Structure formats: structure tokens, C-alpha cells
């Protein structure tokens, strides 16, 4: 119970938590894009890091889409409930 209250103090709403996580996904996308650009320009020669960051960004985006789908399904299910 106290752990829940501590979490509420850190994040005041579900919307803010969601926005924060989406910002993290966006940051990963931007980082992967930046590394790719540097690799293409010849400024960085570490293909391993470029591939890892690109795959991490891809997986983060896929996870965000799946979370969105589950939230949407839950919302639709709540709307179908009879009171």
C-alpha cells in the first residue's frame, strides 16, 4: 500500500507515465537515427553499436504499439460493459 503511494508521488497520472515512456521511445528512435547518419557519413565505424541501437529502437516501438493496442482493447471492453 505504501509503495503505491510512493509511486503516486512520483507520477501523478497514468497519462503522464504514458507520455514519459513514449518520450523514451522517441529518444531511442532519434539516437538510432543519429548513429545511422554518423555511420553513413563515415564519422563512426562501429556497425555493431549502430545495429544494436537500431534494433533496440525497433523493439521499443513495437512494445509501445502493443501497449497501445492493449489499452485500446481495455477501453473498448469497459465501454461495452453494462452498468
UniProtKB/TrEMBL annotation:
This is Flagellar hook-basal body complex protein FliE. It is found in: Bacterial flagellum basal body. Keywords: Bacterial flagellum, Cell projection, Cilium, Flagellum. The keyword Transport does not apply. Belongs to the FliE family. It comes from Clostridium brassicae. Its main location: other.
